[in-house]
Amino acid sequence: MAWIAGLWLVNTALLIIIAVREVRRPAKALTWISVGLVLPIIGFVCYLFVTNPVQMRRDKLVSSHNNPISLPPEYGHSAFVIARALQPLSVSGLRTGSVQILTNGIETYGKLLQSIQAAQKSIDLEYYIYRNDHIGKRITDVLIDRALSGVNIRFIRDGWGSRSFPKYAVRRMMEAGIECRTIFPLRIPWVLSNLTYRDHCKIVIVDGKEAFMGGINVGDEYTGMKPDVGFWRDTHMRLTGETADDVKAVFEAHWKIASPDMLHSTRKAKFIPESAQLSGDKAIHPFPSGKTKRSGYGWEWGSELGTMEGTHMGKASPSKDSHNVYIQIFEGNPGLPTPVIREMHFICLTQATRTIDVTNPYFIPDADIMMAIKTAAARGVRVRLLVPRQVIPKVAGAASRTYYGELVEAGINVFQYNKGVLHAKVMIIDGEIAEVGSSNYDLRSYRLNYEVCAVMYHSDVARELTEQFERDLAEATPYRLEDHMHRTSSERMLDQAARLLSPLL
């Protein structure tokens, strides 16, 4: 029995260490203490592995192109307050630029491919998920073609999100002269200490003057026509002007901490589009035209994306308006003690005076964000929250559901999107402030991920995003307090267990 008492004392001491180290983050501390109670000693070892990062940048990102400006007097009070409060958190303060809102994958990939093919000097790409499917192969082929034409290309992918991206595809890119790096690859020492820290950004910068960012990765599912996934709703942006400098500054910071891919080849680079390589007697095309045996969606693939084939591949859907706006860029950095994206969300929520519309797929906020939303409603601000009905992984959806009843009781309108996958990350405030980016409302995005978001000040941008929000609401169902109360006992238990694990999701 003495050894049991000794084990208990040792484990208690280790749990106290966790509590002291995580005193500023009680939710995380509680989660790891619970793990330590269930798995004595082993839980503490796991805690050390995943909370002692290596090669983590711990300085705040500040662009060298710092030229602060202020909003003109026609903007409302909340815009002035938010812009001023966010100034020290942003990459380089308030900038000007042109913004084009993109609300689906086909439109985004069309614009992206058009810009990539027109690149003359440089292309920088950074993605959490980069797949080697139809979309991924097509973009890779175009990148290789531009690299062989003399364009300088750098490519960053996340070690976990893009873990299925094959080595042979990386080798093809490197043989063409593309520099490839990985953020926290799944190999020692990163896999032991940086497994939970991820690069969640979706960034492309073309010739240093045009940038893409938002919620869309590279993969067939983002087109909304992948049969086993279904309809996909997302929001992305195309930025031009001086604000592209700030997005490039984010990329440069991540490039420095990324690990170079060490794949060697003795072959001389020769570009053969993978989409044109032969399999048997037939060529494999990334966007088949006409109806195919692959699926009933073959016709849509051909008609919607077939214009990207050959010389017409750069054409996209009818162009939306671009808006000249004021913009602030924000980088989430897990190495900093202050979570920049969380602070940005908190300031926007607390300074709204009339309306707040939030669309987000993973709504698992901490106590401060919850209080900011609830007090906004208490001040008379109309608050609407749009979340997906079906969330992947399911444990994240279960954790998110535990908040809905409390929000509805506080006077917040919660809607569940029914049409398909909702992956957009958007906030609209007072009809003239809008935030779009890669970050979710959860502790992972706030504390563990590299993220990039933009806050824009312009009534036309806010109106365009609000119109899309209203269209999404037409495909959604209001969440009622009765829905929350009528959950079964097993559903309640599973939801609460998922919420306990939310700091690790």
Describe the model.
Pfam families: PLDc_2. It comes from Marinicrinis lubricantis. InterPro entries: PLD-like_dom, PLipase_D/transphosphatidylase. This is Phospholipase D-like domain-containing protein. α2 (26-38) runs antiparallel to α3. The longest helix has 20 residues, at 2-21. 47% of the residues are buried. The strands form four sheets. This protein has a 17-stranded mixed sheet that branches. β16, α13 (394-409) and β17 (413-417) form a beta-alpha-beta unit. Helix content is 39%, strand content 21%. By secondary structure, it is α/β, with parallel strands linked by helices. The chain is built from 17 helices and 23 strands.
Supply database-style keywords.
alpha/beta; two-stranded parallel sheet; globular; transmembrane; 21% strand; Phospholipase D-like domain-containing protein; 505 residues; PLipase_D/transphosphatidylase
